[in-house]
Amino acid sequence: MEIFLESNYFKYSLIIVVTLIAAMIITRILRFTMNRFFIRTSQKLNVDHTKFNFLKNAVSFMVFIAAFIVIFIMIPELKALGLTITAGAGVITAILIFASQQAFSNIISGIFIVIFQPFRVNDHIKIGDLFVGYVEDITLRHTVIRNYENRRIVVPNSVISAETIVNSNIVEDKICNFLEIGISYDSDVDKAMEIMRSEAMKHPNFIDNRTEEDKMNKVPPVIVRVINLADWSVNLRAYVWSENSPMGFVMKCDLRKAIKERFEKEGIEIPFPYRTVVFKKDIDNQKE
Questions:
Q1: Which residues, 6 or more positions from 100, have their beta carbon under 8 angstroms from its beta carbon?
Q2: d(Cα 37, Cα 45) in Å, to the nearest integer?
Q3: Distance of alpha carbon 204 from its chain centroid, rounded?
Q4: Which of 83, 87, 123, 169 could bridge 119 with an S-S bond, Cβ 3.0-4.6 Å?
Q5: 11: enclosing H helix or E strand
Q6: Residue 281 lies in a domain
Q7: Domain boundary, last residue among 99, 128, 147
Q8: Cα separation of 48 and 37, whole Å?
């Protein structure tokens, strides 16, 4: 018995058992921590936390790989074999990473989305100048967006990470809609501004976003300003609040029609560019 305890077999067996037990404990701790994090994060993102199970399995796999490497290094008889396997695995890993770098990029970007939460399911977002719609699903590889045509756009997470994201719901749903209309220089600017204000306030999707201080200072519910004196028009902008972006879109469409009809009744002209064409032969005839 004493000979067995003093032999290398016992020592090596002890190293293997202790290392594997340590790997199991570390794996359980990591999986428990990640599981709590993913459940909490998934509730905020409105996604199923089981979609991230493969990431927990990948972490467990890496822990046991590290444990086997430690075992091979600590046992002299296996050290040479371990170095050979490690070198071969390193070459294979490098080849796999190079061949699937785009996939890894998407997964890393997906992890960042899970951690930093720039958007959630059902949020209305705009990704750069590329896509606009509602987030329908979030995975570690891609995000599914439902656009206004009810089509699903599958966007790789690496593309999302490289673009600027406009989220209409990240803090609150209310949105200030810019409604811009140009009138001719001959039209009554004050009258046109009042028409835009009154039509906006009559729309059912309009909300009064003024504070009590604004009301005391008699700030109008809809502010209309002259924003530009263009080549052929005086450009007016109305700041109209709505509960959310979809309601704001419908309101802007309705107001464009209503304001145009009021302008026609009130004699406010919406101009378009005039172009005078002069033919060279007409100039020559005038000289003669």
A1: none
A2: 12
A3: 30
A4: 123
A5: helix 8-45
A6: no
A7: 99
A8: 13
Top-confidence residue, 7 or 165: 165
Residues 9 and 88 in one domain: yes
CB atoms near residue 104 (< 10 Å): 13
Only one residue has tokens 């026609």, namely 264
Whether the Cβ atoms of residue 149 and residue 162 lie closer than 8 Å to each other: no
Decide if 69 is inside a domain.
Answer: yes
pLDDT at 4: 44
**In which element (H, E) is residue 132 found?**
strand 131-138
Which residues face 152 on adjacent strands?
Answer: 146
Residues 17 and 79 in one domain: yes
Domain of 204, in residue numbers: 175-266
Tokens linked to 206? 């309009």
pLDDT digits (tens, 9 = 90+) for 15-35: 788 888 888 888 888 888 877
Domain count, the chain: 3
Per-residue pLDDT reduced to its tens digit, 143-179: 899 998 899 999 998 888 888 899 888 878 899 999 9
pTM equals 0.62
One domain for residues 12 and 95? yes
pLDDT tens for 241-274 read 999 888 999 999 999 999 999 999 999 999 887 6
For residues 159 and 179, membership in a common domain is answered with no
